[in-house]
Write a structure and sequence with these properties.
The structure is a single chain. The protein is an alpha+beta fold and about 220 residues long. It has three helices and 13 strands, in the order ααβββββαββββββββ. Strands 1, 2, 3, 4, 5, 6, 7, 8, 9, 10, 11, 12 and 13 form a 13-stranded mixed β-sheet that branches. The N and C termini lie far apart (about 95 Å).
């Protein structure tokens, strides 16, 4: 009797192990890959070098339903944007608190960026492509600069995004209303922005700080 019970127990154990093994084999590769994605929050910094800068602000656009306009890879955390300025360096810092994980197959973030950009112009730091193919996250909003004597300039519907090139994360900046030109990694974007208290627009010029060595610094100059 004991031997029969022991044999039955062995058969049940083998059946459970086989079922578990088959269930694992039947999990789609996409689902297996998704479980391996690490959702880690990072402080992602991009810098704007501009002589005399005293204040940098970025306010996300919202749609008609009040939804903030940003896109991030599914499963990754997002906790908003902060800004700061170091006047002694003439440097503003924009920090996106978010995860860093690109979607290599469906690229929904890069597609969102391109759709928002339309026929506008974009600058990818250290990137020879004219448009991003893969991105970790992207945002759309109003980018505001303040200079001495109350000189305030606001640029609407600016797209800011992070991708990667080689082994480094790199940043993209563009807008539907931006025009520009470039060859290789050398780019120059021009955008008409609002100057507070003025009737005419102020042209802001955006360029990479370095065409080859820097993946998170933009130079900004009002004309």
């Amino acid at each position: 009797m004991k031997l029969k019970l022991l044999g039955l127990l062995c058969l049940l154990t083998a059946s459970v192990l086989t079922s578990t093994s088959l269930a694992r084999e039947q999990v789609p590769p996409e689902a297996q890959a998704k479980t391996k994605i690490q959702a880690t929050l990072h402080n992602n910094d991009v810098f704007f070098d501009s002589a005399g800068i005293q204040l940098l602000q970025f306010k996300l656009d919202v749609d008609e339903d009040g939804k903030e306009q940003y896109k991030i890879t599914d499963g990754q955390p997002y906790e908003g944007v902060t800004t700061s300025v170091d006047p002694s360096k003439g440097e503003g810092t924009l920090t996106v608190k978010a995860g860093r994980q690109k979607n290599e197959k469906k690229t929904p973030v890069a597609r969102w960026f391109r759709e928002k950009l339309g026929r506008g112009y974009a600058i990818g730091l250290r990137d020879k492509n004219t448009l991003p193919k893969e991105l970790n996250f992207a945002l759309e909003g109003t980018l505001t600069f303040r200079y001495p004597d109350g000189f305030v300039i606001s640029c609407d519907h600016v797209l800011i995004a992070q991708g990667s090139v080689a082994s480094q994360n790199n940043w993209w900046l563009g807008a539907r209303m931006m025009s520009g030109h470039g060859v290789g990694t050398i780019h120059e974007g021009h955008m008409g922005c609002k100057q507070i208290g003025a009737v005419l627009q102020k042209i802001m010029v955006f360029t990479p700080k370095s065409a080859t060595n820097d993946s998170n610094h933009f130079n900004v100059k009002p004309l």
